[in-house]
Amino acid sequence: MRLTEDAALKFFAEGDLLELGKNADAIRKKKFGDVTTFIIDRNINYTNICANECKFCAFWRPKNHRDAYLLTHEEILQKVRETVDAGGTQLMIQGGLNPDLPLKYYEDMLKTIKKNFDITIHSFTATEILYFASRAGLSILETLKRLQAAGLDSLPGGGAEILVDDIRKKISPKKIMTDDWLNVMRTAHSIGMKSTATMVIGFGETLAQRLEHMQKIRDLQDETGGFRAFITWTYQPLNTILGGKKVSAQDYMRTLAMTRIFFDNVEHIQGSWVTQGERIGQLTLAFGADDLGSIMLEENVVRAAGTSFEMSTRKMIDLIRAAGQIPAQRNTRYEVLKKFDGSSDDET
Prior knowledge:
TIM Barrel; 348 residues; alpha/beta; three-stranded parallel β-sheet; single chain
């Protein structure tokens, strides 16, 4: 029987943390047994020049700032080459909303990458897609079709933060609102372009607002079936205009467990070592997560906010094994490419 929003809120607010974890872990185990996946990819931030000026972001810079940059296609290709050489199968290309870049810049980037490398391009947030469309004078559908034709395979869930407009107006008044984000995802799913969904907690939102966010994702998933996974991150306040404090590990774990329990129609729940560190990341595997995300050969946005954790394939394998799980490398579609069950000599 599907958990209603009211029942979920009561469990979320009043349930014992370990009981939540136990329930979430039982659902995970029924779905995936003892296999925990990860992917090798690279997050390429092609520019930090951004018109949105979000208060919670420490990465963006105005156009004429001494630290502002824009990568050339040659520089991006070099990063892709390094990714492929390291065994990477996915690119997550994301950047600021740079007013000087036409849609052709992105189309040429995608075509150049696909011409030279066999790699999945899981890139551009809904915020970027809407900005590209607006600048080009095109509809979201036309924009996505052009990017898809150029080589874009799927969309990451970034830019969602909290899908409650009262919160969005406080933390990023220039950014797209809730219905905009949902519409980009709905449109992407309509042309067979899958995506992930995310939630960033720690902006002072209530548990009810987190559940409101989750309900909107669950409803859209009922409609389209286009979300492959759900990922919860925590806001990193250092070096930001918004400021504030990090949420506790307990708050993060409670929310993570609730996502596994609530999302009966989203297959994969990802734990975040990027914002939590490897030990809490490992603990997520007992609170409903079946995936630990990426080795992430490069990451700049969270790092700009003062949080930096390093990961390697070897460390990831050891981390998952120490949690009593079988590590497995996956691709963007969550298909297992290789299991590290202790019987292979190539576990590097």
